[in-house]
């Protein structure tokens, strides 16, 4: 069963190439569904956190005592201040700037990193959006673009998908490892015509349509079944709330067992829903730990107003590498 559709707008801006300017919004195309466990004190059932400590002394460090350093050589670091890091951040243009169109099949799968659904923002963007989608579909091309989401610049490929478009964030060239040294078979390793025919027959016998619902995360399903069984048998443990997270009877919510289990696995109270302020704080911490991009994206989307239309003539696109 596919994850539910996300209607939350994570980014708002426009697709821009040549004189074309299409207002669009980005929506998450994936959902993190792996089991998430929290560390608990076995005796007191309180949550165990990660402290920042000095590795040489084991002493806890305060935030103001910590600086960021980049290792240039072994044990040789250059320290950068928050202002220096901030000055290097890319400026957000609120546009998906397409710099080139390439054959979609030429993009190696190892470059694909994270997909986002792209939707037209308002009725005015419907026609140019559909035109770009059909043009990409008929030409077999993908738009190679640069986009700033929150404070991070990404390389991306804009591709048609069903009635919409998908923006696939790509890895930069220096993030993809070289294959030199891998023992892949070369031209000296040959297969006979008979072997190839038999292999093709086997593939054909196992061929079918792509049906993702036929495949399941068996490990997760077994663990969730075990969690459900233990919960029904009285195995729920009361987690002691952190200071400021205590919930009074007046603010308690009625929730079903499935939601209760989910909150328990996320480190929230197994008996009651958190207070609104604590709930938001916990959600921010969880998102930052499991998806480094989405939390800042949501914050950026909340701060920024929809991009205004603009027309610009771009320089001839350079060949994408």
From TrEMBL:
- Its signal peptide is none
GO biological process terms held by the UniProt record: DNA recombination; double-strand break repair via nonhomologous end joining
Q: Which residues form the Ku domain?
A: 58-187
Which residues lie in Low complexity bias regions?
268-280
Q: Name one GO molecular function term.
A: double-stranded DNA binding
* UniProt xrefs under InterPro entries: DNA_bd_Ku70/Ku80, Prok_Ku, SPOC-like_C_dom_sf
Q: Which UniProt keywords apply?
A: DNA damage, DNA recombination, DNA repair, DNA-binding
**Region of interest (Disordered), ranges:** 268-321
- For whether the record's keyword set contains DNA repair, the answer is yes
Q: What is known about what this protein does?
A: With LigD forms a non-homologous end joining (NHEJ) DNA repair enzyme, which repairs dsDNA breaks with reduced fidelity. Binds linear dsDNA with 5'- and 3'- overhangs but not closed circular dsDNA nor ssDNA. Recruits and stimulates the ligase activity of LigD.
Write out the similarity annotation: Belongs to the prokaryotic Ku family.
Assembly and interaction partners: Homodimer. Interacts with LigD.
What is the name of this protein?
A: Non-homologous end joining protein Ku
Source organism of the structure: Ramlibacter albus
């Amino acid at each position: 069963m596919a994850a539910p559709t996300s209607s939350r707008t994570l980014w708002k801006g426009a697709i821009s190439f040549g004189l074309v300017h299409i207002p669009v919004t980005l929506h998450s195309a994936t959902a993190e569904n792996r089991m998430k466990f929290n560390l608990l004190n076995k005796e007191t059932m309180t949550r165990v956190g990660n402290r920042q400590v000095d590795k040489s002394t084991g002493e806890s460090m305060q935030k103001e005592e910590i600086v960021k350093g980049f290792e240039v050589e072994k044990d040789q670091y250059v320290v950068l201040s928050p202002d220096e890091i901030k000055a290097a951040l890319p400026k957000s243009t609120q546009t998906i700037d397409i710099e080139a169109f390439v054959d979609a099949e030429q993009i190696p799968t190892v470059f694909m990193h994270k997909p986002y659904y792209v939707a037209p923002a308002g009725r005015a963007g419907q026609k140019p959006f559909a035109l770009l989608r059909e043009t990409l579909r008929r030409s077999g091309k993908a738009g190679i673009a640069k986009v700033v989401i929150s404070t991070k610049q990404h390389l991306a490929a804009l591709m048609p998908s069903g009635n919409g478009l998908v923006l696939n964030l790509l890895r930069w060239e220096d993030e993809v490892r070289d294959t030199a040294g891998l023992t892949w078979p070369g031209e000296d390793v040959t297969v006979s015509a008979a072997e190839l025919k038999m292999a093709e027959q086997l593939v054909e016998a196992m061929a079918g349509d792509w049906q993702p619902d036929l495949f399941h995360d068996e490990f997760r399903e077994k663990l969730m079944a075990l969690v459900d069984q233990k919960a029904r048998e009285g195995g729920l443990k009361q987690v002691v709330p952190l200071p400021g997270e205590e919930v009074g009877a007046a603010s308690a919510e009625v929730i079903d067992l499935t939601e209760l289990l989910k909150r328990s696995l996320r480190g929230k109270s197994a008996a009651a829903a958190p207070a609104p302020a604590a709930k938001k704080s916990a959600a921010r911490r969880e998102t930052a730990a499991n998806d480094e991009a989405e939390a800042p994206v949501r914050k950026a989307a909340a701060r920024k107003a929809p991009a205004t239309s603009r027309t610009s003539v771009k320089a001839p696109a350079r060949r994408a590498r």
